Amino acid sequence: MSHPKKKWGQHFLRNRGAVARIVEAVEPAPDDVVVEIGPGEGVLTEKLAALPNELIAVEIDPELSERLQKQYGGRITLINGDAMEAPLPPRPYRAVGNLPYNAGTPILRRVVADPNCRRAVFMLQKEVADRLVANPGDEAYGFLTLFVRLYASARILLTLEPKSFYPPPKVRSAVVVLDPDRKPFASESLIHLISASFRMRRKKLVNNLTTFGAREEIVASMKRANIDIDIRAERLSLEDFARLHDAMPKTI
Ligand code: SAM
Q1: How far is residue 35's CA from residue 45's CA, in Å, rounded to a whole number?
Q2: Which pairing describes strands 117-125 and 173-180: parallel, antiparallel, or unpaired?
Q3: What is the pLDDT of residue 252?
Q4: Ligand 1 centre and the CA of 197: distance in Å?
Q5: What pTM, to 2 d.p., does this model score?
Q6: SS3 174
Q7: For ligand 1, is residue 236 a contact (CB within 6 Å)?
Q8: Whose CA is nearest to atom 21 of ligand 1?
Q9: Across the 252 residues of the chain, what is the mean pLDDT of every consecutive 10-residue run?
Q10: Which residues contact 50 (CB under 8 A, 6 or more apart)?
Q11: Distance between CA atoms of 227 and 70, rounded to whole angstroms?
């Protein structure tokens, strides 16, 4: 056992029941590659390697990576690198991992937006998982909710207490299953609009949008999209944002 390294968010899963449920939830098709992110000491890797699918594991810690390489040899492909940058397979794959807290959100965003991802089963902080399943008006509803919803539908598979890990983290964790559900209107400029809309959460939407043009112009766009001009971003659904995007000046 190596000493857990805080800088890489190393909290190793010690709950065997949770390991089994996570691996079961991956459900890869015969030709899906399985990509494990942050295998660590290999508690999930052991079960994933028993599947008939090709397994690629991406681990940033050279020490743990070397250990897994020795253990599995050529049976799995180990990439010692950063999952925020490492190449993702150019063919259908399913991603799985107990993600490090410090890099969980960017890794999640990257994988979920990737067209080859057929499913992702990710352990995250419970607070982040709650954002993925939030509805308009909920405290947890915001940019991340809508970003992920552009590409996938999310459900919480299970919730875990800190004692399920070594060392125990400060917060609860949850496993989320994300299945592709790419919206036809997904675009960089819509993401830009949503991001600007939540910049100052307590402000009215119109005030956050004046970065895109004169207030009268924004008000006119909101009216064209049939959106209440006094509303806050947290009340709008993804479809409302898509409609607003269509009604906005084409320069955004
Ligand atoms: N899968 C193991 C488990 O469940 O016990 C380890 C989970 S631990 C929460 C997160 C793992 O991700 C650690 O092994 C850590 O070294 C690795 N990690 C952290 N940042 C990473 C990154 N940017 N890319 C790839 N792996 C990373």
Answers
A1: 10
A2: antiparallel
A3: 63
A4: 33
A5: 0.97
A6: strand
A7: no
A8: 60
A9: 87 98 98 98 98 98 97 94 97 98 96 98 98 97 98 98 97 98 97 96 94 94 97 98 92 62
A10: none
A11: 59
